[in-house]
Amino acid sequence: MVLIMANTEVDPTSESRKRNKWQLFQIFLKTGRRRVTLSVICGTLIFLTITSLVMIVYTYRFDTFQSFQKEKNWFNDGLISISSNEYAPGVFNLNTSYLEIITQDYTSMVNDLFPDIKFRNQSTALSTQIYTFDPTIPGEPWLNHEIMTFDNRTYTGLIQNITAGRIPQNHSELLYLTTSSNQTDFQVNDTITLYSEWHTGRAKNFTIVGLVGNVTETFVNESLSLDLFNWNFEGSIVEFFNYYRYNTFVTDSSLYTEVLNNMTSYEGILTYLVDVSYDSSAIKPTNWQNYIYQIPELNDLLESSFTDSPVLLCQDLKLFLIQFNGLWTLKTTKLLPLNAPLLFIVGLLSVVTLNIGSRELGAVFRRMKLYGLSYRSVRRMVFFENLIFTFVSFIVGTSLGFGVSYLFTMGMENQPSNYYLNFILEPLLLMALGTIIIGFFGLSFYIQNAIAKKTTQTTPEEFKEKRGRIRRIFSTNEFRLFVIALIFTIVSISLFTVYRNLGEISIVVSSMSYLTLFWFMITCTVAFLLTFTFLIIARVISMFWAFISKSVWPKRLNLYSLSIQHLSVYKKSYQLAILGVLLFGLLIVPGLTMNKSLDTNIGNEVNLKMGDSHLLISHWVDPTEVKDVLLENITEISSFTEAEVYTFSDENEVGRYPNSFRANIVSLENVTEFLEVIDIDKLRSYSSSVEDILALENNMTILGDVKFKRNRGLKPGDTYLPDDFLRFPDELTFIDSFRIFPLTPYPTNRAFVPNFDTFSIIGKRFTAREIARSIDFSTDFSIRNYKLINAVNESAVSIVQEKLADLNFTSQTYEEIYDAMYSGLTTFPINNILIFAILAAVTIIFVSYFTGLKIYEERSRIIESLYRVGAVRGQILAIFTFEYFLVVSLPLLIIVFASLPLFGLVADFFLESQSYYQPYAPGIPIWTIVLIIIGGLVISMLGWLLALIPAIYRYRPVKQE
After folding, report:
1. pTM above the 0.85 mark?
2. Three-class SS string for 757-817?
3. Which of 211, 751, 857, 949 has the fewest CB atoms within 10 Å, measured from its CB?
């Protein structure tokens, strides 16, 4: 017993050792509290950024879904939500609540499938097949008709559109629905004989007591279903029955019950229809495939417990979800790649975080070794420190991200109660946070463990290892990053290949989560390739300064040449700063100027579309010029002209022409009138002249765009035979070329389509029509007609528009066309880009601050030597700042001007702007770019000075003996 007790006693030496290790770990944390604090702050920013990014995607998807749902008219989409029919021989015994029971039974089937989907409104109808006998039709004298009834709300909306007569008052009276699909012109008080069975002659006479006209406007305003009048069952639904209805008769539900119950026998089709307007705001868009999967297939339909017939459920909802998936896939292809710079920001912050205090860690670990701690104990401390650091950063960062996201989204319209719960369970959020947590902890532990491991090596071993690394060409950061980008590219291509081959047959592959993962991987690929490109640029810049240093330093020994020498010696220390400046320059110009650029380009597009006129009338047709007389009578009109735009396109499948082509031919009705309407000053900016326009008065003369002139080697005055796009060409005289021209579509090539030619030419009406007569039968042809109108002054434009409206002419002003174009933009990415610019500014401040600290640590000995030769603190700060200015100014200049061509890509692809009449241009003055560059330098210098000023002014020289 004593022996057992002795074995269970705690070894005091072991307990003391554990306590001492815990105390050492606490000391390790306290001595590195500055490093740990900065790491936690940076890690918090990273998790905050990731959470915010996912909230951007999540909110944008929700808004897109709500907008898509809002535009959806469930009651006029050509599909019935819940429907069934059956062949019903025998007699009826319906009760008065028959319609309500069917509605409840059918809608409950949907509620059982989708508890989170509610209904805004619903409309119910019953349709009974009935017959008439027409002996004048040989062979098929029996015609199909239907008698319908509706729920009270729908029936009330129906009778609001009675155009003649009254509502039925007994079971022998009916309303007649006068739609375009009905075949008979019934009038009030007409009598019709309807048979309940085909071929048997069991007849009943009915009186038409009222006519119901067009119900569309009422049903739309009252949110009632128009689909109920156009029901059909198509495809392979063999259990359901279609028949052509010659006419539709209507009565209320109680009289309808009497009509059916009074039939002594019946043989025909009874159809049940329930159309609903879904309130799908609580749907998780990521689970769209699961919703579709729950909808019973056509060969496995559920049966109604009340009607004992198979029921077709939610075909409209199924189509809606499939359409939204296609829309969101398109949106995702634009949204996630646009956010690739945000991942780059996360990468920069991660690099800063993982390198904070790495210089001092080596000394700390060596001291621990001197105190007798083994490498294993140090590694355990590193493990727990990184575990604490990662966990705290995750908790604080995601909490702040949720908090900020909540503040910005709490007032959203139609926000469901499970909105934030769905966000927490968002696959993209879980995937991104999980990746960052694992990668953050793993990389941080790897770096610190590598530093700790070096303390176990002898100096010769360490030197040997360094010498081995130098020999490894492929150990550079650029190559490593390229390998990572290549891996991500291969994974992305693999995911795309799987989706392309299995997307239609696999629920997992076709799910939105899979597609989000796919585009997330592409975004990561773009981010890595962007980083790789920036590293190459940084290396080239470093090589440039090394070359300058070799030329300047031996010849001029002064403080400024010393700064240049430092750039080549300490180029690795500045690599991160260069990356930050490159990212900042890439984002700051589009972020701050995109709105202004859009205003400029949309304004130019509108002017070109309107021919610089005050008013535009599209689809103008006036062969006898009668309408022109009406325009001449409006005294507020100063001038007007007419133009036509022909478009020819041919895929050249028979190989008759050198290339497939798309040609735009602008026809000017009257050249002189056109010059009276057009702005002559703007005409010159389009690379055209009045003389060129007047020369078009000659028959068979043309102007061509610059590409048209270059591809055909034409010179002014040359004769041109257009056999490259006309079957029966006549010779044309080429006057001159133009860059852009009013009403003239800008010729754009098809991406990745070789042997395709596109061009635009201009001529007077005779010339254009002669060209149009010469096209091939295989050439597709379209024409648009325009009337351009100028008022006597700006104030008279609204008066002219009103008078045109009185003449039934629909005209558009500059403001109306501008608003229509701007409303078509996807404006969400504009704010997205602006947020990136702000985040990039914060990142560059942080990076420059960290770079300043790192440079100060590396130059401490140089500072001492500068003091000894008489330099004061201000001079030392100036030398270092001049050095940093040289480092960041060159990449900032390069990337700012390199980002200007990206405007067109961002505007056309991400914002869906229109570049129809001219190529997209930045549209901002050069002084704006200069101010942005200066602002970028100031922001970059801010973090640098925040780090260096306190450090240099706290520095105390070493006292000499």
Report:
1. no
2. EEEEEEEEHHHHHHHHHCCCCCCEEEEEEEEEEEECCHHHHHHHHHHHHHCCCCCEEHHHH
3. 751
